[in-house]
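> @MW can you paste both from yesterday?
MW: sure, first one:
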Amino acid sequence: MDTSSGTQPHRMDPAGGCPHADNARLLARGAVAPVLLPGDIEGMAVLGHDALKEFLAHPEVAKNARHFTALQEGRTAPGWPLLTFATVQGMTTADGEDHRRLRSLVSKAFTARRVERLRPWIEELTSALLDGLGRAAEEGGQVADLRAHFALPLPMGVIGELLGVDAEHRDRLHHLSNQVVATDIGPEQAIAANRELVAVLSTVAAARAERPGDDLTSALIAARDEGGDRLSQQELIGTLVLMIIAGHETTLNLITNAVRALCGNRDQLELVRKGDAGWPDVVEETLRWDAPVSYFPFRYPVRDLTVDGTVIPAGTPVLAGYSAAGRDPAAHGPDADRFDVTRPARSETTRHLSLGHGAHYCLGAPLARMEATIALERLFTRFPDLELAVPEAELARHSSFVGNSVRALPVRPGVPRS
């Protein structure tokens, strides 16, 4: 690890918490920072917008864990909490031709036409969930957990529908994926959660193999069964793991963070209501200002690489610091830490990176944007006086430095508008 500047590695807090104060301190030192991961594994974090954009698209940066030196040398303990991010077999851990092959199999589910076909169904589900949120508030003394009753079941319902996951499995899959992204989990819990997640998704795949439908899992199984090298069984299950986690956790955090931002900045909500900004603007500003993923593991330089003047040794596990890059003043101006839905459209060079960049750009980005836009517009139309039921500072944060949000979001919806 390069510490020639005298900078001591920043110890990543497994308990998570709000990332923004630490991000600002690290960014003040430079765009790239040495970090200590759980288990005292040495890593690096790329925090600055320009440096991250360069790093994400660099041709000599890999995703396959065969390039992860500490893992290959046996220095990561069994049950290491970040192991799944490194070893799951799927698009996010594949390079080159393998990545293109796996991405092409999944991308058919996320074409613009197919995503748009989901709009009426998403709108219908949103309305039903808002009915449920209203009922929960009536039963709970005018307070309800918006995350549990609305922000979670919406994207989980959508990804469940896309993958052909029966409703009976969805709550369990959310619980297990939450444990997989937790960074404070113990080794035995981590191993058990990963095993059960694979087991549940294997059950889902077996059901779809027996009764194929118009869903992505059935399509992937068909690709597997066609023979050749299109898809192995491990890649099938690995792809389902990635799709379940990425397909609902990020959108769940996006919706939750946007509601928090609007409730804490009522002037910005009023600008949307007056037509001075649109709901898509709220979504984009939330993605920048409070990214759903704070630090995403991992990428590995295949040779010693200098990024913004800092050497990242070959084989180092590198975190993509999306939440830090979103508030980088060098890219977003001196008011980068201010939530502003009328923020002037930035150029291509300074557009936020919260959904990735380069070959691994998020396939589900159009779907996530659609879900969040519909959710926010319908929520604040139905409940125009919605407010947080507890102060922002008292909201319990995720136990993870990967996901960036809160565990629950108690709100007072107020009187619904018909």
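MW: second:
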Amino acid sequence: MPSVNIERIERDITAVSQFGFNEEDRGVYRQGFSEADMAARAWLREQFETLGMTHGIDGAGNVIGRFGPADKPAVVIASHIDSVPAGGMFDGVLGVVAGLEVVRTMQENGIVPDYPIEVIATAEEEGRFGGMLGAQALTGHLTLDWLERAADERGNRLTEAMAAAGLDYHKALHAFRRPETIRAFLELHVEQGPVLDAEKTTIGIVEGISGVFKWNCRLIGKADHAGTAPMDMRADALMGMVDFAHEIPRIIEEEGTERSRITIGTVTCKPGFPHTVPGEVDFTIVGRDLDEEVMRVLSNSCRRVLSSIARRQKLKFEYEEMSWLAPAHCNQGLMDLIEAKTRELGYSYKIMPSGAGHDVQFFCGHVNAAMFFVPSVGGISHAPDEWTHWSDCERGAQLLLECVMELACGEGAVPSLSAEASGD
């Protein structure tokens, strides 16, 4: 069996890390449609050119390189190369570079695929403008209204950022790929969490992407003098939120699963003065699980508990559901293929959910799609000290190679889109 070359993988990941690298904090600043992002996309097209791949950039900014026949559905290897501010060098990039290495390895071993292999660097995955633009465009999850309204936290509009990058946002709606043009979709990614590293496990086979609900919440009490208001006569909004925070473990234990997560991410006290009892507290709740029914149970429980606390502490409770994203389940047949190849290679592995969002979630239910992880040291990601050992990068790329060759070489059937993945 051909083997990937870790020296080339290391070289390419290091090369990409220089686009947007900041000497001061050692972080990568390669946000979607920035100059650094577009320079990295140009670099990738140069690599495709060197390998003799047909290549281009679609209306959404996805960079696509193709190796193999033009008239058959493609085996797609995809991830992203944009970053969060002060990000690391592996997040997303490993999956794209590993795709390059798969093509290189096949070419140098004289292996011509029966089905084309496409390597795609999706556009704007990290959500600078509030979505995963490239994957949404490819799977038909874009609307003109959203494109024209989307803006980043500084008020920069997506349409203007795309124009500055030489892209007409209207053409993003033409990036849609019909399901019959994709034979299978695979994404290799660093875990971005501590589980594989802590358990000394090589591969995480992703069963699905957790669904997410997000609330903006408000508890309203009464602002009062911190010195003169007796403790038993206060309507302290912050104390109500703290009481709810203490209830989160119980809610998950009684209503959730081992995959459940509930997080209070932001808190704002008003009036926010040291000598004043907080009369209002605004906070977010984000809940996750791989089962949408469990998500509903968790959200109902949060609402009941907050309402009860508000009544008990003489507060008013308000909330607004900002978003509800259903879980996305990976194709079981592709998961079985990844597991079989992992066993053949002798790697340790576990079946696990992804609590973080990834490009693959938009492809699940659209085409045969699956994902697998390699460990992140200490679980650190979205930070300059993000690290994955080169040996783990090599194992992940080798597993990707073997899965792709199984899917692209020969006329055998691919795993069918399961009822669970298609939403039937």
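> thanks! The first helix runs from residue 6 to 17.
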